[in-house]
Request: fold
Amino acid sequence: MFRRRPLRLPEADERPCILLATEGGPISKAAVARAADLAVGAGARVHVLAIARIHGVGFGLPAPGLYPNRQEWQERRDTVASAIDALKKRGLDADGHVFGTRKATKRIVGEAERLGCSAIVMAAEPERNRFVGDFIWSQEPYRVQRRSRIPVHLVLD
Reply:
């Protein structure tokens, strides 16, 4: 049922990668600009990642109503496509994809490591109290920042 992908380590001739990620919200122009600045400075490519949130399980079993619907998937694809277009207009090499997951922090950090990224860029809201923030989906960038071993650049809206 679950497919494991082998860890892809960067080869010596590959360019570094910058991960532009979102936990489901829109990617701001400021976040795209920050990722572009980092990529130009390092001669890197940019990978855009959007998360479609799976809300959980019902009675211990996966329930169809808890998965993202077609509209949510399309919104995430459109978010990724618009970010890629903005990066390509700046002359950068960019690609991206959408993942469905319950654990966005783990998935974002894991993808950054798998792709060999040198930095993660995320749009963020102002930080809240850590206890309250752990229950708020919009505080995901701060959880990514705490968990990641690579630099995380948070762009406040």
Remarks:
- The chain has a mean pLDDT of 85.
